[in-house]
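Title: Prediction job returns without error message
Component: structure pipeline
Severity: low
Priority: P3
Assignee: unassigned

Description:
Job completed but the reporter wants confirmation the result is attached to the right record. Sequence as submitted:
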Amino acid sequence: MTFPKVLITGASSGIGESCARYLATKGFCVYAGVRTAEAEQALLSQSINLQQQGQLIPVRLDVTQPEHWQQLYQRLEQDGQGLFALINNAGTGFGGPIEHLELQAFRDQFDVNFFAVIQGIQTCLPLLRQTKGRIINISSVNGRIVTPFLSPYCSSKFALEALTESLRYELAPWGMSVSLIAPGMIRTPIFTKSQARFQALKTVLTPQAQQNYAAPLAAFERVLAKAPNKGAEPQLVALAVEQALRDPSPRMRYAVGTDAKIALTLRKLLPEWAFEALIKRLAAGQR
């Protein structure tokens, strides 16, 4: 039995893992990109039970390493039948006051969230053209709405939005579609990792910097602390990805989660000054 082949990056945990497992039960042959042997084994243990539903194939992939992409391309080409979809999910989050962030933090953020996406697209396009396939980029509500102290992350997602829109126009003549998934708050390890990075950053802030940003940083920390238990389940994103894979005419953007849909609607409808006032209140920890 032949299943449509999809490749998803960042499948070790969170949204990527949920999407990989879910799509494999829905009749897709899923190449799940992971960085460690442990994650590879965890996914392999699940693939045994799929039977005729689909396939789940863990592949070693660090999206920032061009040689990994080339090796994966060779494997996909050897397996034949092109590639139906590339799902760019791998991502990370850096934050802190812009005034005190190392420039390298921005570079590291863009390496994973933006430049690696370009690398993956350029590598996989010959295979995607064979099937008139689809590209799905996992963005965020922060691709259109800025959150204070998350400027590296938000900037990378804004850039991803522009890249996606441009590519959507460029590939349309070949009958190929490019879409964005824009989740709101989702229960994934990214928040725990962000908390750890944020705590590490605070240890290197000068006393004056800590005093200057004391109130807004405290409000931001409260948001991060609540996020892991407040967000929606990752499978909600998996459902949106499946919709983008199956829609006869995929949309440009699929918002995921009530909070994302409300926030994006407010961003669209409110005048600039009103939306800015709302963000400032939220940043100050006010309701």
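Comment from assignee: result matches the submitted record. The longest helix spans residues 103-131.
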